């Protein structure tokens, strides 16, 4: 039976790529909505919905996924704690794949970051994350940068909230603290996405960098996640589960 994929955000740049990749995967695009549209009808017509809209609609779409019993693949960034809690609540009823970044390489970057953070003590190695995106991006740091910070904190046996974030350094600042993770966000041109994690010690620096050159890599990953999600038990998943790393 042909998988029916619904696309929330179909009128945007990612929406077109998602439509193309869904068709290339052998699935049927059951429909789509843009900034407006009948989201309830979209879930009813689909076997799984991919949502690349924005944080403001994430909670509503999560609730519709749970109500309709349809899996959700969520790629919106900049969600608040309350919005993430709503997504987690929906995942008690249906499978939800929620990822800050659907590129397979970024998923591997998160895994490497966690392992390296576990091996490099914060008293000796400061962790700094630098990201750059196109000039239209409105949230900073990016969702991927924050997820990278969470991976570093996990490797050090803490949460990002416990470790702390340092960002927006400007003017005469105090010396860098020991332990917090530094973030710097750059915006300009049409950069698809670049993320660098730097571990800096007195005697060495180690850097991990991922660069996306085409947004299609996110669409390909999201469609892969949509195929994978159908038939999974209710839970909150991310791309490491889709790639068999969970």
From TrEMBL:
Per UniProt, the keywords (alphabetical) are: Amino-acid biosynthesis, Cytoplasm, Diaminopimelate biosynthesis, Lysine biosynthesis, NAD, NADP, Oxidoreductase
EC code(s) of this entry: 1.17.1.8
Enzyme class, spelled out: oxidoreductase
The active site annotation covers 133 (proton donor/acceptor), 137 (proton donor)
The UniProt record lists the Dihydrodipicolinate reductase C-terminal domain at 105-243
Q: Which cell locations does it reside in?
A: Cytoplasm
Q: Which residues bind (S)-2,3,4,5-tetrahydrodipicolinate?
A: 134, 143-144
Give the superkingdom in one word.
Bacteria
Xref: InterPro entries: DapB_C, DapB_N, DapB_N_CS, DHDPR_bac, NAD(P)-bd_dom_sf
Q: Which residues form the Dihydrodipicolinate reductase N-terminal domain?
A: 4-102
Q: What is its main location?
A: cytoplasm
Which PROSITE patterns does the record associate with it? Answer: DAPB (PS01298)
What GO terms are given for molecular function?
A: 4-hydroxy-tetrahydrodipicolinate reductase
Q: Which residues bind NAD(+)?
A: 9-14, 75-77, 99-102
* Pathway where it operates: Amino-acid biosynthesis; L-lysine biosynthesis via DAP pathway; (S)-tetrahydrodipicolinate from L-aspartate: step 4/4
What is the reaction catalyzed? (S)-2,3,4,5-tetrahydrodipicolinate + NAD(+) + H2O = (2S,4S)-4-hydroxy-2,3,4,5-tetrahydrodipicolinate + NADH + H(+); (S)-2,3,4,5-tetrahydrodipicolinate + NADP(+) + H2O = (2S,4S)-4-hydroxy-2,3,4,5-tetrahydrodipicolinate + NADPH + H(+)
Pfam families found in the cross-reference section: DapB_C (PF05173), DapB_N (PF01113)
How the protein assembles, per its UniProt entry? Homotetramer.
Q: What does this protein do?
A: Catalyzes the conversion of 4-hydroxy-tetrahydrodipicolinate (HTPA) to tetrahydrodipicolinate.
Return the similarity comment: Belongs to the DapB family.
Protein name in the entry? 4-hydroxy-tetrahydrodipicolinate reductase
**What organism is listed for this UniProt entry?**
Teichococcus vastitatis
Q: Which gene encodes it?
A: dapB
């Amino acid at each position: 039976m042909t998988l029916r994929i619904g696309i929330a955000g179909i009128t945007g740049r990612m929406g077109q790529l998602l439509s193309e990749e869904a068709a290339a995967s052998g699935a049927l695009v059951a429909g789509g909505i843009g900034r407006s549209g009948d989201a309830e009808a979209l879930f009813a017509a689909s076997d799984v919905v991919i949502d690349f809209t924005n944080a403001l609609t994430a909670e509503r779409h999560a609730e519709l996924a749970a109500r309709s019993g349809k899996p959700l693949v969520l790629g919106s960034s900049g969600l608040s704690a309350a919005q993430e809690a709503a997504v987690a609540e929906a995942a008690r009823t249906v499978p939800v794949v929620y990822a800050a970044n659907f590129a397979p390489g970024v998923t591997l970057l998160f895994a490497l970051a966690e392992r390296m953070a576990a091996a490099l003590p914060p008293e000796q190695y400061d962790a700094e994350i630098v990201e750059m995106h196109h000039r239209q991006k409105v949230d900073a740091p990016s969702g991927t940068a924050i997820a990278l910070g969470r991976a570093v904190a996990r490797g050090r046996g803490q949460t990002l909230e416990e470790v702390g974030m340092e960002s927006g350094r400007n003017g005469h600042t105090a010396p860098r603290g020991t332990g917090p993770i530094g973030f710097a966000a750059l915006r300009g041109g049409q950069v698809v996405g670049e993320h660098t994690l730097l571990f800096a010690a007195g005697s060495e620096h180690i850097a991990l960098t991922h660069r996306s050159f085409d947004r299609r890599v996110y669409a390909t990953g999201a469609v892969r996640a949509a195929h994978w999600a159908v038939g999974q038990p209710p839970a909150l998943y991310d791309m490491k589960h889709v790639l068999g790393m969970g």
